[in-house]
Amino acid sequence: MIKDSHIVLGITGSIAAYKGADLASKLTQGGAIVDVVMTKAACELIRPMTFKALTNRPIHTDMWDVAHEGISHIELAKAADAVLIAPASADFIAKLAYGLADDILSATVLATRSPIVIAPAMNVNMYENSITQENIQKLKDRGFIFIEPAEGHLACGDVGRGKLADVEDIIGEMHKIIGRSGPMAGKKVVVTAGGTREPIDSVRFISNLSSGKMGYAIAEAARDQGANVVLVTSSQIKCPAGIEPVHVQTALEMRDAVHKACKDADAIIMAAAVADYHLETPFKNKIKKKSATLDLNLVRTPDIIAEVKGDLVKIGFAAESEDINKNAKAKLKKKGLDLIVANDVTQDAWGFGSEYNKVTLIDPEGNVNEYPVMTKRKVADLILDWLTSSPKWVK
Ligand code: C5P
Question: Counting atoms of ligand 1 from 1, which one is nearest the CA of 335?
Answer without folding.
Answer: 8
